[in-house]
Structures are given as C-alpha cells and as structure tokens.
Amino acid sequence: LYQLGINLTNSLYRTAFVRENLLNFSTASQIGEWIPFVGVALAKAKTITLIKDTLVSIRWWHGFGLTQQTLGGPKRSYSALQSLKSNLQESTSYELFERSYVNFAISWMAAEINAQRKFVSFTEDAKFLRLIGFDALGILGHQQEYYYDHKAQAVIKNLVMGDVYYQKERQLRNVRSAKTKLAATNATLRTRIDRYQATIKRLRNRKPRTVRKVASSLVSRLKKTLLSKNPEILDTAGDFNPGSYTMNYSTGRRFIALCECLLELTPDCLQTARFNLRDAILEEKTKIKEFRIYAQVAISQSNKVYQLYLDKLALILMNSNAAEMHVSVRDLMAEATSQTAEKITIVFNIQESQVFPTVESVHLAASKDYRVNTAIVFAPIGDQNHNLKNLDSDLHNSEGSLCPFSRDEYLMFEESPDILVVTRPYFNAVSKVNTPKEEDIFEIPDYRTCGFKTVYIPYAFYDSISEFALKQGYQHTIQPASWKIVAFSLQILDNYRKYADLGDKNVALLGAPRFDISSGINPYKTDEDTHRFENIIAGRRTLLWNPHFGHIKNEAIREQYLAYFYHTIAYFENHQEL
C-alpha cells in the first residue's frame, strides 16, 4: 500500500491481508477520495459484511472520515460512493455485495451529515441528498431489516421526509457547540480577572489615590474584554422602523468596522465578490437567529437597528454597479455613525439599595470615563418595600445616566445597554452562607437571556456561585475579593476627608477593611461567636456592616465606632449601611 502511494492505517490493511485476497486496485478506485479504495478492497475480499461492526466503530472513534480525507462534506462523500458503486458494477460484483454496499453507504452518509457544523451547510446538503443523492446511490427503498444500523437508517429517513423535528434538533446542536466555544472564551476572561485580583491584593495598604486609579483601570479592561470577545445577538429586522432608536456603541462600531473593511476593497473586487459577501451577511444572521431560538433571547432595539443596516448593506451589494458601490457603502456608514450612541452604556443592577458597595463603587469609577454612560438599576425582589427616593442622587443623576427603576418596569430593554453588571442581594447571602442551594442562587431578574453582555458579581463568600453562574448562562463572573478595596476606599473617600479634618481620632479610613464577613465568623449564631467577633475587632479601627454592628454587646467597643457610624448614616440618609 505504501508503494502505491496510499496513506492508510496498518491496523485494517496488512500486507498479508492484501496478498491473501489477491487484491488488485485499478486507477479508478484510487481517485482523490479513499472511500472507493476502502469499499472496493473490502468488497473484493468478500469481508465487508463480516467486519462491518469494526469498521463503524473505528469510524466513530476516529471521526467521521476513516482516512481523514473527506473534508468536503456529504457532497464529496456522495461522489466517492458513486465511484465505488460504478467500480463494483464494472467488476460485476455489485449484485453480490449490494447489501454490504448499501449499509456501508448509509452509515457513512449519516455520519457525514451529523458531522456538519453549520446549519446553513447542513440545509443545503440535506436538500441535495434528498432530491438527488440518495436515489442515485440506491440506498433507499429497502425493508428495515435490510439495514444493519437502524439508527443511521432513521437519520436518512428523517432527512428524506423533511422531518422538522430532526432539523430543529440540528439547530440546537449547533447552538450548544457555539456555547461551548463561548465557555472557552469565558475561561480566558477568568484568567485575566485572577490577575486583576492579585493586583488589588498587592495594593491593600496603598494610598487611596492609587486605588482609585486601579479601579478605573479595571473598569476599562473589563469593558474592553467584553466588547471584543462576545458576538452580538441579532434577529431579522423585517419591516422594523428605527424611528428614534439608535445602535449602542459596540453594535454601531461593529457595523462601521464592517463598512470600513468593504471600502478597503476596490470597486471591481466588491463587484466580483458581492455574492459571497451577501451570503456571509445572511449566514451570520441565520446563525444568530438559531441561538436566539434556543436561548429564547429578547432582541433589543439596538440589535434591530443593526439588522436593518445589515439588510441595507446586502441590498447595496446586490443592486449597485461597481462605480456606485463605494459611494453607497460610504453613505450608509455615515448614516450608521449618526445612529450610533457615542458612549458605551454600562448598567449596574442592584437589589438592595446600596447594600453591596462593590457595584456602586465600580459605577463611580466608570462614570469618570468620558466614553462610558453608567446607570443604576434598582430591582427589588421579594416582599421588601424599598423607597427609590432614598437612593443617593450622585449615583444615578450624573450626565448621561439613566434614572433608577424597579424590576417591573421595561425601560432597560428599550435602552439596550452594552454591559449589565448583576449582583447577589446581601440578605439572602447571609442566610445561606454555609450551603447555598442552586435553586436559591438566581433570584435576580433573568437578564442573561435579554441580549446584554452580563457580568455577575457574587457576594464575598459566594465563591462557588461564580462557576454555577457560568453554567447557567451568565457570560462572565467577577471574583469578589478583587473588588473589596475598590468598594471601601472609593465609596467613602471624599466623605471621610470631611470628618478627618475635624480632628476625630476615632475615625480612620483604611485601604481595606480589617474585618470582613468572608472571614468565616458569623455573629448571628451563638453568644460564643459574638464574643469571638468582639475580640477580633477590639482595639482596631474597622469598617463594619450595620447588621454586624447591632450584635456588638460590649459597650466600649460600640463607642469606638459610634462617631464614624453616625457620620456615615447622616451622609447616606438611611440607604447606606456600614
């Protein structure tokens, strides 16, 4: 076989096997594809039926191509099987090995079809095989007991009948494959975040100014990573009228970049490649539509505008001549630029008014970036009665920000933010610190299916939730330890300086809290735990959460924090608790 220039595995075709069966291969059986060679060799040796099980298991174990030569998909395999059938007929062996050939072909074609990754390619190949291919190969029209592999026969039968359920299953399989690739991207992001976390730990005792700089850097890196690594979720725009709607920053820049790439081509190149470019646009829309069907994603207004401009671009490519194409694309790009929001919108979702300082502090850092619009979304859960008017005004009334709104309002879906930052409410985390249950974790509004890039920030001791959040479909999670110093320093830095100037020696702002609930001490359990809690914080200037403050029974220790505590309450007006 080596002398014939045929690269095959020795496990199936030993020299003794060839000599014993007096195999003689014609030139016609060695063309391009190796399927004819494999089939003719087995047929002439009169052993194709006997080793059929081994052949199938080897094919499935090593992939859909025995010799890794069938990279062209079902159509190339169809040509190869046609060659095999012709070879058998020329050697008057077809009638003798017809059943073996039919089973060999039907198993092979089923494997090739199942190996298709793109739904568009799958649809085209399925249509060709259903109308022409299967009849030409002669693998249909037999009784069920004629086939060895009933699973493969069922695949072909469903394909011939145009079974919508089978095609739907194909759609979902392709979506699952896409989500697997996205999970790999998320793993890369988590590695980056671990590096950010290590940086924050090194800055634990640095000056607040340095910490503020790091916070802004983290927001910038987070924004850049999210906008560069995640595909937009699109849908068919249809007769959608954009009206006053615009594309958000990331979506608009994506379309503008596409137009810039087209303008780099000469008019003649655009004219020549217009069909391929149009097909690429339609294929992208089809793939994204598959994902939306699977995930039941509600399309945003920004993405509808984007879809509309993709349709316009496709029409320009098809209906314009070479001289007009550049001008039309440039005009469309200018129009899209005017429909693109100038700033990236990051929305911070909270479920307790100021109860988790991490989100608010990152919001403050992001709001100082002129390229970013930030907003606080207040989404109360459960039966708690929250007053939106008590929210700190400087957290949501900055230029370009959205006003807070409740979970029941639909505003956020119309605003279409680029990034949504979601956190876990504090009061639920405290009650479930030891053994959090999966069904209790995601009581937050289910924004992960709304087309935004979501970032989930779990509470400090909820490290296990990060992994679970990714499994549930949230695109990214942030390990909370990397944000502690940002939360405590930026949030109260300016206010602290006011009281520090008064000479109050009991007030001290540290680079990071010296006590944190994640240390594992729960003052809610027993008196013994409460005493341990008091001993740890005695004599130390520590920032405390109000729920813990109420459990300090030692009066001297309570007095140590009263001044700072009252100053804090006065400033935050009952909606911020330390």
Rg from Cα: 32 Å
Helix content: 40-55%
Count of folded domains:
4
Biggest β-sheet, characterized? 5 strands, parallel
Spatial strand order of the main sheet: 2-1-3-4-5
List the helices and strands in order.
HHHHHHHHHHHHHHEHEHEHHEHEHHHH
Number of strands: 5
Quick structural overview:
With 578 residues, this protein is mostly helical.
What does this protein look like?
- The radius of gyration is 32 Å and the shape is extended.
- It contains 23 helices and five strands.
- The protein has a five-stranded parallel sheet with strand order 2-1-3-4-5, with helices on both faces.
- The N terminus and C terminus are likely disordered.
- The chain starts with 14 loop residues before the first helix and ends in a 6-residue tail after the last helix.
- Helix 19 links the parallel strand 4 and strand 5.
- Helix 5 packs across helix 7, helix 9 packs across helix 15 and helix 10 runs antiparallel to helix 14.
- The longest helix is centred in the first third of the chain and has 39 residues.
- The chain folds into four domains: 148 residues, no CATH class; 162 residues, no CATH class; 141 residues, Rossmann fold, CATH 3.40.50; 60 residues, no CATH class.
- With 578 residues, the chain is mostly helical.
Task: Lay out the secondary structure.
Blueprint: H1 15-20, H2 35-44, H3 52-62, H4 74-90, H5 98-114, H6 119-137, H7 150-161, H8 164-202, H9 208-229, H10 249-263, H11 267-272, H12 274-295, H13 301-319, H14 322-338, E1 344-350, H15 357-367, E2 372-378, H16 411-415, E3 419-423, H17 426-431, H18 438-441, E4 453-457, H19 463-471, E5 476-477, H20 484-500, H21 527-537, H22 546-549, H23 555-572
Parallel strand pairs: 1-2, 1-3, 3-4, 4-5
Helix pairs in contact: 2-4, 4-5, 4-6, 5-7, 8-9, 8-12, 9-15, 9-20, 10-14, 12-13, 13-14, 15-20
